[in-house]
Amino acid sequence: MKKTAARDDALALFPSELGWMAVLGSGETVRRLVYGYSSPEAAVGALGLIDASALRVANWNPRLIARLQAYARQGNDDFRDVKLQVEPRTLFQRRVIAACRRIPCGSTATYAQLAAAAGSPGAARAVGTVMKTNPVSLIIPCHRVLGAAGRIGGYSHPLGLDIKARLLALEAAGKKRRSGGQKKSTRKPAKRVPAKR
User: Fold this and answer.
1) Which of 52, 99, 138, 142 is catalytic?
2) Under a CB-based contact definition with an 8 Å cutoff, are residues 170 and 65 in contact?
3) Single pTM value for the model
4) Is 105 assigned a catalytic role?
């Protein structure tokens, strides 16, 4: 379904190591983000806006643009401090989004762990639905959510599981660099998502 941009929205459109990115927002608040496209036009089209031609393309939020480009190179940002405005959500959906944003960069959680962290154990499939409709992936890091037993699960991006695996590998390499490259066990269970206090 096509969306309408808010009157004061601006569009940041820029290349990255993950392909062209487009970010829609105003002030310091992000409303939509897409990445992994082969051209600026494809990235704008992926925003799913009714009339993208009315948007002003600007160097909107240059600090965020720089962070996203650095992330695409190094996988080293969790974007927890980025303000979001996503469409109205149920209480459960808001809890899932908040729990997902607490998954540290370079770590993962299962759909079941995320459901439990959101206060709804047994709602793993519903968590998958929330992740599928994520309008700001990377900032709400749905790529860090895995299926049972650590299976990669699904990913609602045109590049599918290939880009999800690439993001996870990018973050794992970034985590290894941050920890000084110390060798750790290659197989660990997914980390628990910290509960909101």
Assistant:
1) 142
2) no
3) 0.84
4) no
